[in-house]
Amino acid sequence: MSDDRDPHDPRLERIRAWLGQARFFAEEIYSTRYRGAIARARRDEDDLFMLLVFSEMMGLSNPVAYYTLELQPLLLERFHDWHRRMGMEHSPLDHFKCC
Amino acid sequence: MSAIVLLVLGLGAMAAGYFLYARFIAERIYRLDPDYKTPAHEYEDGVDYVPTNRFVLWGHHFTSVAGAAPIVGPAIAVIWGWLPAFLWVVLGTIFFAGVHDTGAIWASVRNKAKSVGALTGDVVGKRARSIFMIVIFLVLLMVNAVFAVVIAGLMMNFSSAVVPVWGAILVALIIGQLIYRRLLSLPMVSILGVIALYALIGIGPSVPIQMPAEVAGLSGNAVWILILFGYAAIASLLPVWVLLQPRDYINGLQLFIGLIVLYGAILLMNPTLVAPAFNDNVPAGTPSLLPLLFVTIACGAISGFHGLVSSGTTSKQLNKETDARFVGYFGAIGEGMLALAAILAATAGFATFADWQAMYTAFGQGGVNAFVEGGAFIIHNGIGLPEATAATLLTVMAALFAGTTMDTGLRLQRYIFQEWGEIYNQQWMKKSAPATLLAVGSCLLLAFGAGGADGSGGLIIWPLFGTTNQLLAGLTLLVITVMLVRLKRPMAYTLVPLCFLLVMTIAALLIQLRSFLEQGNHFLLVLDIVVLIAAILVAMECASALKRSRAETLESQE
Fold this sequence. Notes:
The complex is a heterodimer.
Chain A: H1 10-32, H2 35-53, H3 65-71, H4 76-85
Chain B: H1 3-29, H2 39-42, H3 54-65, H4 69-77, H5 82-109, H6 116-124, H7 126-157, H8 162-180, H9 186-203, E1 214-215, E2 218-219, H10 220-237, H11 244-269, H12 289-296, H13 304-314, H14 323-348, H15 353-359, H16 367-383, H17 387-423, H18 427-430, H19 432-451, H20 462-486, H21 492-519, H22 522-557
Helix pairs in contact in B: 1-5, 1-14, 3-13, 3-14, 4-14, 4-16, 5-13, 5-14, 5-20, 6-7, 6-20, 7-10, 7-17, 7-19, 7-20, 7-22, 8-9, 8-11, 8-17, 9-17, 10-17, 10-19, 11-14, 11-16, 11-17, 12-20, 12-21, 13-20, 14-16, 16-17, 17-19, 20-21, 20-22, 21-22
């Protein structure tokens, strides 16, 4: 019985590899078709979050500015992506230059 | 004649097409290059441009293009006998669809993965692009109207399928949540989903739901059409992961299982083709085979819709350019196989010739109902499944496909309305809800306008849908041909199919124009004229674009 459960049994390894492969294909097939649509929806949500974090700079009062201020450096790279995506070569904010 | 012989002949010819003709086209005409950096690598962003394994991409491509159309078209066209439909499906797949689909991927990959619409603007001209937009809108309009009529007919005729068809949507909603919240692994969810779907199919015959013939002054058929559009409108507005993604996935699994069951049953039973090879005794009012066969079977032989998928999402995910042959050509073969199964079910699935004749009493009759009944007869005799269960299985397969196409089509139509809102600066039209309402409204107008208040006559527009779909294919072939001329490569392999399609389309439109005029159906007469104008514009655009690009190449040679 014990060698049946040997984790290095080549037969078990092969089955495991095969299952892993099947799982990979199933997940790829599940996600391929709508990958773009879902990533775009997620990006929209992220943009909204970024708007909240940077709201003070655009003149919108933010009751939790004390906390979101800390997040600004973390969002630096995403902010850079965002303004490039929106067709602006450089940061549109006066006090927040990323490039 | 034995169905197995026809099956082997058809599959053998398609296999030869893949190994010989497709190789020639890929190596000599498109000259696919394994070292070419595809847009998936060049612009890789994890959103749209993602290099994808070719088997996965084929699965995506095939399940996106396969719908109810390759079932409905051939099942209507066998009214002229099985031979014309068989030849057009097999030869169309080999020489038309495969070349067209592979070519659309190639053209798009060589042009930054742009869509055929954008390519028409770049390669052929601005004018052609406007025609393209109109043709696309007409195709979507007709596909939604026709499929609503098809599903409504199925729901009325096969009441045992009502519970499984709507239950499948519930299954998809649950699967979507299980996967989204990572409650179960995907292989586990797939197995559970398939079991749940087939359990529903199993219990379907014992809980039939029959819509009364008349509800509040409307026919049962019309009520189903309204319910279906209500569903499609909601489905097209939901986030994709909630319903569309899990449902397409479960549909894809179901498609493969359904095809295996049907082909397996044909092999085990070896039914005889009861329908004649050529039907000399067609019911009165059946239009002539030439040219109508070539627009009745669009999907399954050549379909412009494939070009939209090929150049839309497939080309952005192609890992190597040489994969285009496998994904595009073999995708077309998958569709051809579905059409072949539909032909066999609708011609061999009857006990006697008289039974078959009773099904095909008029042009447009039979169709998907013949596929379901014939297929159920074969499955019952081949693998012993009760006939009611087998009929439910095939109805669910056809209805789910048509449903998927409907809400995708409605979503695309909504985008077009929103784009028009953008172009003509109409704020209200840019919003999702009003744009969806406009899309649904235009489809309902067509579904009821074509066939009267009960909506049952909507299938009259099937050939008209075919012509529009072929026009779209013609525009894609034009883009490919112009590209080939500019590269100084042989253009006959795409030009001959292009000319053939245009001639058949215009001839079919003229014949239908006469019959609509004789019937006094002014609504369809106007629609026919609109499509005819688009067809003539496409033909003239072809002539001028080819003349221009030939002149350019000759000039550059001098």
